[in-house]
Amino acid sequence: MFFTGFIRKIYDWIIRLSGNRNALMWLFIISFVESSFFPIPPDIMLIPMILATPKEAWKIAGVCTIASVIGAYLGYIIGVYFFQLIAEPLLNFYGYLDKFNEFKNLYEEYGAWIVFGAGITPFPYKIITIASGVVHLNLVVFTIASVIARGLRFFLIAWLLKTYGAKMRIFIEKNLGWLSVLFLVLLFGGFILIKFL
Fold it and tell me: Closest Cα to residue 45, out of 36, 55, 34, 37?
């Protein structure tokens, strides 16, 4: 119960920040820390900011993407140098340690795809950034997958909100999980078709 209340307070605080005149700075900070240790995704601030200023949609999505990718490097560094000191207790706190151990074993073969998949879906990205550091995933591969995935996610949200407004906000908030998974399935399906045709 304490943890649920704590998350709710953070969520409410972020919603209030989205209306602040320094909202872009706060979006940068939240996007940065979410990639390495913060529990709330930046989408909850990104969405109301774009709805409030649709002309700034691309700028807002760009700031969110850049901050998220820079923050991903912090997660990577935690994985490389501070796993036992910081990452393990953090993953335990969020209840992600079991998931982390499962994903760690898949990195040898599917590292870039795992980073990409987590980057566009609601899966906690911090697990992936830390895991990438633990297994020393190639930094160029990590960077490219992060930039493409985070950019696709945030710019797609920006485009949908800029184009369809408040109705799209309700739709995205209700269906972000399955929409992201559907996009990932279609993407993988496309690669499989190319391979076999």
Answer: 34
